[in-house]
TrEMBL record, chains A, B:
One of its GO terms (biological process) is glycolytic process. One of its GO terms (cellular component) is cytoplasm. This is Glucokinase. It comes from Heyndrickxia shackletonii. Keywords: ATP-binding, Kinase, Nucleotide-binding, Transferase. The lineage of its organism: Bacteria, Bacillati, Bacillota, Bacilli, Bacillales. Pfam families: ROK. CDD domains: ASKHA_NBD_ROK_BsGLK-like (cd24062). Belongs to the ROK (NagC/XylR) family. Its EC number is 2.7.1.2.
């Protein structure tokens, strides 16, 4: 068999996704291991190195096949120093030198970036970005993440905090508290968690008939997907909740559009599976709030890679370094 | 005399600023000519070429002294094609090929960019940016302009519309109409014109004592500077007007900070002459609305070059091309 492989790693708080990926971006082998957060996360990097080694043995391959490891990590990183400033979810100490540690453990060169940035690079390379070199990505998951790509490279920012789209303030006064310590962040409204919060607040105050309200009463809880599903089945309360959320998200994306006028703004994460139910109202508010030349030229698109965006973007990092 | 010169040109709706500038950014000779907008602006570029030629003769120099011309123009440009999409204030037809025309007239290579982008490059090179390669600039003048610099280069955007900070929507519903056709743009609040509008609206509804109100009644009009001056003399109405405006501007700059985490955000234009009267409340709201890692690392700074930013940034364009 010909060709070199890249190891793409997407390190999350629950599991680590790994893959061997060809230089053209084709995923050859993909697997997952649990993230062991015990003992301040000291086993995480050894587990990753071991797992890569075992998979190579299993496939009858040697290390010469591998170009290097690219890894997305859940926190702001300093790529030059090879450290992650803070990774609260993993238990690691501050400024943990993950590049040196993983490189020593694996005997391979290692490149890192923030996980949201990796997802953005993946979408640029093989997904909705479709090779566009200037894109903004927003990931609507449990939280809201972002990645900004200018001229084909991630914008890191002076302290690794570029792309913090989830913490753009959309409700300057009286907004809901956010995990970051501020209030009224986009994340409090447009994440899966935020959608549920807004929906519950709205349901409680609503006195009319609604299938979403009925579902909430019968199940005792709802998910973001329920709101889109009920809207799709004609529930007007659900439609008004989604409108309210897309107004805020559309405003933020329009403002990012005015700043960067990117070719595409790619919307990913679990919430983006709503597809056109999300995209149609979002496009309406984007057009309303963006400068005319921006709404005419910056395209909104749903991410296409799903969970593979992170490992592909991580692999892109390693490929383009070496 | 040693060394080559660059011609920096800042083309405005009323006058054209020109300068001969050394490669290290020192301005050697600086002058202005009126902008002749008659006959669809057909005399503007010939006037510029003539004026450069006359000044060279006056100084006893020949064209060999000149590296080229850099010019900032009042509208979105396509740098590759060398055209300005639209320059409503000058009367030029759409997609006017200014690079070819000025190059033919002057016999010199010509580089162009939007005037706000040139001001940003000037501040990066010789002003408040102080060599920082990642900065955002906002110009608070008659309107509000912007320029975004990533890795030392202006972000143009797919249709030249990056940096349209003035048209970021800050009042989603019920905002004042903007010249761009939308409502509630930053420009309607934080430009010199916007400050006057907000001040007048506030004065009319205010029944208490206020030196700003007295000034408005006696003069029949006020300027943005009056609001800062009255605030500085202890007028509480003026202070509340500036607070309200800085809340909106601080929110926009915090959101730009969250997207790009630049080293500096530079505030220029006539309104920025208010200095600390502007910067202090602005910094307060920036800190309130920005993600903590952003407010800790992105610095707000007042532009230092004044009217020279445009010619210096234009010269930088020509210097870095050749």
């Amino acid at each position: 068999m010909e060709g070199k492989w890249i190891v793409g790693v997407d390190l999350g708080g629950t599991s680590v996704k790994l893959a061997f990926i060809q230089e053209d971006g084709e995923i050859l082998h993909k697997w997952e291991i649990p993230t062991d957060k015990s003992e301040q996360g000291k086993n995480i990097l050894p587990d990753i190195a071991d797992s890569i080694q075992r998979k190579m043995v299993e496939l009858g391959e040697t290390k010469e096949r591998l170009i290097g490891i690219g890894m997305g990590a859940p926190g702001a990183v300093d790529k030059e120093k090879g450290i992650i400033y803070e990774a609260v979810n993993l238990g690691w100490p501050k400024n943990y030198p993950i590049v040196k540690l993983l490189s020593d453990l694996s005997g391979l060169p290692v490149e890192i970036d923030n996980d949201a940035n990796c997802a953005a690079l993946g979408e640029m390379w093989k997904g909705a970005g479709n090779g566009a070199k200037n894109i903004a990505c927003v990931t609507l998951g449990t939280g809201v993440g972002g990645g900004i790509i200018v001229n084909g490279d991630i914008v890191q920012g002076v302290k690794g905090a570029a792309g913090e789209i989830g913490h753009i303030t959309i409700i300057p006064e009286g907004g809901a508290p956010c995990n970051c310590g501020k209030t009224g962040c986009l994340e409090t409204v447009a994440s899966a968690t935020g959608i549920v919060r807004v929906a519950k607040d709205t349901i409680i105050q609503y006195e009319g008939e609604s299938s979403l309200k009925d579902l909430y009463i019968s199940k005792g809880s709802i998910e973001a997907k329920d709101v889109f599903d009920c809207m799709n089945q004609g529930d007007t309360l659900s439609a008004s909740i989604i409108e309210q959320i897309m107004l805020h998200l559309g405003l933020v994306l329009a403002n990012i559009g005015n700043v960067l006028n990117p070719e595409k703004i790619v919307i990913g994460g679990g919430v983006s599976k709503a597809g056109d139910l999300l995209l149609n109202p979002l496009q309406k508010y984007f057009n309303q709030f963006a400068y005319s030349a921006v709404s005419a030229s910056t395209e909104l698109a749903i991410a296409t890679l799903g969970n593979d965006a992170g490992i592909l973007g991580a692999a892109w990092l390693a490929k383009n370094k070496h």
